[in-house]
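Students often ask why inverse folding is considered easier than folding. One informal answer: many sequences map to the same fold, so there is more than one right answer. In these notes we will look at a single instance of the problem. The structure comes first.
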């Protein structure tokens, strides 16, 4: 009797395109401008991406293109949280020090402000058109594609 062995490699390897966006805009403003320049309809999801039981949350906007059967997701890469800790105990007053803790959705890309994930294999000409459209936005400093095989934290990009 023959033995059939199925080997499943990383199925999710290159089934999406990832675009890094550098800009200092608020997330809702960037989503509005992407909608305007790309002709899409990103809307904010009711719940943010949650890591460590609400300790780190990242805003996310999504749009499902029914014609092309693709899902577009815009996620913030930076999460800033304020942490209060007890100050010097030798003081007359009870002081608390406020420090800001910064975490990243993709730690290997710390300078990237936003990530645009398109869950579909896009050809090179369409990818260039999307990048050129994003670069037309005056408030965007730069945008470029990220090779998904370089990512160490791919599991952070599973939004659903």
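Output (designed amino acids):
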């Amino acid at each position: 009797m023959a033995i059939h062995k199925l080997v499943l490699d990383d199925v999710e390897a290159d089934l999406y395109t990832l675009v890094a966006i550098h800009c200092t805009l608020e997330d809702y403003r960037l989503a509005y401008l992407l909608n305007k320049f790309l002709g899409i309809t990103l809307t904010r999801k009711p719940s943010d991406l949650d890591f460590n039981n609400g300790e780190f949350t990242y805003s996310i906007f999504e749009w499902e293109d029914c014609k092309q059967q693709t899902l577009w997701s815009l996620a913030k890469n930076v999460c800033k949280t304020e942490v209060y800790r007890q100050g010097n105990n030798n003081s007359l007053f009870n002081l608390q020090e406020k420090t800001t803790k910064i975490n990243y959705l993709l730690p290997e890309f710390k300078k990237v402000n936003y990530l645009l994930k398109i869950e579909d294999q896009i050809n090179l000409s369409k990818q260039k058109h999307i990048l050129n459209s994003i670069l037309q936005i005056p408030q965007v400093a730069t945008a470029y594609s990220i090779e998904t095989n370089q990512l160490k934290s791919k599991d952070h990009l599973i939004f659903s």
